[in-house]
């Protein structure tokens, strides 16, 4: 496929600064002789069928919209250039949106033909006026504004390539003349509201999938529900499931579980953490897929380790000593290839009919058919261009998590016991959305409908939309959502934010105050990731409280640096708020760590280790405060947003200690306006929490 010895794709590079004609001829020759993609379809073919995506038609269908209509192909050197360009582009990366390139080339071709009727079109004849004419044709022929923008982007890329590769030297600077359209999810109006409502799955639809997963018994149902579950624990794209292996589910050093995820669309490979609530479900999904794919993995591994031998499975009826070069009867072929249903009524021979597949009819035309010949047929059908590795995970194909045997997921068909294959995106979408003349959907097999009785219809991408939308409702930062979703540009989050206008306006409603003298509560400010003011936590001073992970620091750094060396949990200038889930989780984790250190200190103290007694005191004091904070935060009688603060007596300043040593008064009369202050809550017994009384 145009690769060098070190497995790096070779690209054509211009050798002549001013001879554009020679550059063009050499580029076309390079694409014809060095690049091998679609070589089996022929260079002179009027169209090429990619491995994925629409057919690339090098011209115009005589009947628009009819895929079987004859093709009026491009003429002259223009045709050769388009084929060379598309072969190189698709060699670099075979994309499903390649038809946009073809649409752009069609519009440019029409502009060239209109430019000079009596001249054979050539890419070297493109001028600034040609580009203007092409833009006008695009504007006239494409009503969809988003599609205009996409085709204009392809034209922009082509112009840059022509200049960079010295094919055309006189083109002006060209920018996409069509603006990028605002995504429907960001628009207002009834149409946008309807889009948001239809695009984001309802809780009923999500719970319906969960019930299908729980009730699945057939292989087909277990496979599809398990794969779809892997799109529900964290946002992912359906094509990214192809990169998962049987070893992708792993446990980290912190005992947390994650999946090694191979990103797409410019996002690097990463780890997707599994929420504890979803862990058992994800593990079960992995186990199901591993079990279903076990026979297919055996077939793929055999094909690699024994490339010249047919995989003799349980269905083969020949004797064990039957040689690979010995002829096979029709009955033996049928059993070996799992196509017994194609035999005549006598159950012994095939008959050439249109009901047989092309490969079988071609095989029967041969004088003798052997296991060696069947092995060639199998390898031609099931080996891809990256064999034996998965192009995403770079691991062997037989480690693919989603691997299964051909026809294994069709209940009325016999699985091909010698095969291995991967699912297509359409296969998943057909399970979620009824298509004409297709098999039954997942919802139909489990008798699942909408709450009003209408059929459920979803796409695999809608699970990603649902997770993103609910993360936004929960107040998660944009950069976190982008990272969680495997999205390279966080600005694309807006296309997945399908909150209703009511949900979006909830922020302004909750932040709304009765007068300028009042302010939103600290818990509301934190909930929406806004700066928490000092006054909102009861400190009569202008400024912002710093979030520490377990609460907020209110220390005035303009006066002195931090005097606690980061020991926030025992600092009187640190406040916590009830109702913030992450702070409670951090405190419980801190409780676990300090408990371990206290146990070690107690053991060391029992062995009379020097200084261990001081560590027992230190860790015990610290642990007492942590457990007190946890107990208060779990107190259901307290309202959400209650401020919790260490009493001054538990964290006396050096001045206070000096005054206490001299038996002097340490309490100061508070003459400040206490209207906005909140009385701290600290009412648990430390000794009792530690088990000392």
Shape: globular
Share in helix: 40-55%
* Overall pLDDT score: 84
Number of strands: 11
Tell me the number of helical segments per DSSP (H or I, 4 or more residues long).
24
What fraction strand?
under 5%
Tell me the span between the first and last alpha carbons.
Answer: 77 Å
Q: Rg to the nearest angstrom?
A: 34 Å
Strand neighbour order, sheet with most strands? 8-9-10-11
Q: Describe the main β-sheet briefly.
A: 4 strands, antiparallel
InterPro entries: DNA_brk_join_enz, Integrase-like_cat_sf
Organism: Shewanella septentrionalis
Keywords: DNA recombination
GO molecular function, one term: DNA binding
Describe this protein's structure.
The longest helix has 26 residues, at 581-606. It is built from 24 helices and eleven strands. The chain has 693 residues and is mainly alpha-helical. The N and C termini lie far apart (77 Å). Strand 5 (249-251) and strand 6 form a beta hairpin. The strands form four sheets. It has a four-stranded antiparallel beta sheet with strand order 8-9-10-11, covered by helices on one side. Strands 5-6-7 form a three-stranded antiparallel beta sheet, with helices on one face. It has a two-stranded antiparallel sheet with strand order 1-2. The radius of gyration is 34 Å and the shape is globular. The protein has helices at residues 20-33, 76-92, 99-115, 128-141, 145-164, 190-199, 203-215, 219-229, 276-292, 294-305, 330-336, 358-364, 371-382, 425-432, 442-445, 461-473, 478-485, 501-504, 506-511, 522-527, 581-606, 612-633, 654-661, 686-690; strands at 47-48, 56-57, 59-61, 71-73, 249-251, 257-261, 270-273, 546-547, 552-553, 574-577, 643-645. The model is unreliable at 1-8 and 670-684 (pLDDT under 50). The chain is 41% helix and 5% strand. Helix 1 crosses helix 2. One of its GO terms (biological process) is DNA integration. InterPro entries: DNA_brk_join_enz, Integrase-like_cat_sf. Keywords: DNA recombination. One of its GO terms (molecular function) is DNA binding.
């Amino acid at each position: 496929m145009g690769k060098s010895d070190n497995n790096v794709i070779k690209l054509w590079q211009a050798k002549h600064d001013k001879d554009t004609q020679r550059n063009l001829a050499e580029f076309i020759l390079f694409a014809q002789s060095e690049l091998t993609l679609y070589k089996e379809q022929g260079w002179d073919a009027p169209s090429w069928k990619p491995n994925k995506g629409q057919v690339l038609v090098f011209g115009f269908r005589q009947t628009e919209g009819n895929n079987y209509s004859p093709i009026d192909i491009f003429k002259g050197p223009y045709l050769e250039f388009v084929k060379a360009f598309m072969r190189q582009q698709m060699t670099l990366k075979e994309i499903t949106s390649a038809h946009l390139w073809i649409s752009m080339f069609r519009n440019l071709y029409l502009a060239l033909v209109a430019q000079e009727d009596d001249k054979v079109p050539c890419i070297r004849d493109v001028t600034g006026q040609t580009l203007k004419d092409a833009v006008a044709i695009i504007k006239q022929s494409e009503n969809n504004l988003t599609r205009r923008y996409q085709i204009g982007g392809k034209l922009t890329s082509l112009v840059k390539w022509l200049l960079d590769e010295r094919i055309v030297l006189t083109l002006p600077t060209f920018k996409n003349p069509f603006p990028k359209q605002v995504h429907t999810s960001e628009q207002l109006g009834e149409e946008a509201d309807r889009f948001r409502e239809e695009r984001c799955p309802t809780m009923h639809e999500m719970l319906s999938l969960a019930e299908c997963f729980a009730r699945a018994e057939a292989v087909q149902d277990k496979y599809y529900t398990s794969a779809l579950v892997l799109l529900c624990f964290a946002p992912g794209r359906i094509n990214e499931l192809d990169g998962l292996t049987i070893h992708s589910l792993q446990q980290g050093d912190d005992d947390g579980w994650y999946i090694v995820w191979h990103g797409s669309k410019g996002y690097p490979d990463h780890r997707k953490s599994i929420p504890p609530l979803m862990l058992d479900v994800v593990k079960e999904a992995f186990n199901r897929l591993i079990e279903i794919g076990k026979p297919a993995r055996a077939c793929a591994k055999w094909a690699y380790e024994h490339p010249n031998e047919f995989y003799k499975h349980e269905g083969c009826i020949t004797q064990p000593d039957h040689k690979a070069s010995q002829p096979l009867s029709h009955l033996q072929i049928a059993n070996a290839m799992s196509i017994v249903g194609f035999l005549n009524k006598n159950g012994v021979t095939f008959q050439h009919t249109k009901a047989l597949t092309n490969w079988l009819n071609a095989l029967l035309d041969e004088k003798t058919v052997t296991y060696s010949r069947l092995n060639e047929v199998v390898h031609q059908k099931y080996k891809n261009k990256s064999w034996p590795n998965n192009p995403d995970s770079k691991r062997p194909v037989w480690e693919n998590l989603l691997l299964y045997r051909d026809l294994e997921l069709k209940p009325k068909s016999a699985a091909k016991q010698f095969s291995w294959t991967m699912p297509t995106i359409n296969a998943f979408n057909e399970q979620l959305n009824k298509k004409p003349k297709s098999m039954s959907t997942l919802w139909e097999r489990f008798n699942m409908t909408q709450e009003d009785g209408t059929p459920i219809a979803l796409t695999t991408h809608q699970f990603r939309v649902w997770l993103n939308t609910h993360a936004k409702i929960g107040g998660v930062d944009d950069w976190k959502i982008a990272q969680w979703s495997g999205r390279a540009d966080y600005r694309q989050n807006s296309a997945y934010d399908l909150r209703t206008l009511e949900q979006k306006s909830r922020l302004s409603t909750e932040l709304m105050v009765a007068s300028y003298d009042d302010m939103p509560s600290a818990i509301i400010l934190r909930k929406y990731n806004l700066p928490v003011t000092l006054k909102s936590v009861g400190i009569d001073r202008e400024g912002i409280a710093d979030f520490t992970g377990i609460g907020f620091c209110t220390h005035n750094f303009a006066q002195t640096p931090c005097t606690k060396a980061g020991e926030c949990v025992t600092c009187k200038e640190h406040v916590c708020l009830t109702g913030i889930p992450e702070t409670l989780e951090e405190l419980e984790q801190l409780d676990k760590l300090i408990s371990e250190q206290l146990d070690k200190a107690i053991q060391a103290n029992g062995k009379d280790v020097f200084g261990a007694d001081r560590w027992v005191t230190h860790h015990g004091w610290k642990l007492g405060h942590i457990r007190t904070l946890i107990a208060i935060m779990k107190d259901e009688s307290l309202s959400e947003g209650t401020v919790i603060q260490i009493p001054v007596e538990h964290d006396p300043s050096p001045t206070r200690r000096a005054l206490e040593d001299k038996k002097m008064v340490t309490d100061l009369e508070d003459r400040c306006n206490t209207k906005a202050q909140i009385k701290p809550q600290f009412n648990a017994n430390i000794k009792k929490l530690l088990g000392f009384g």
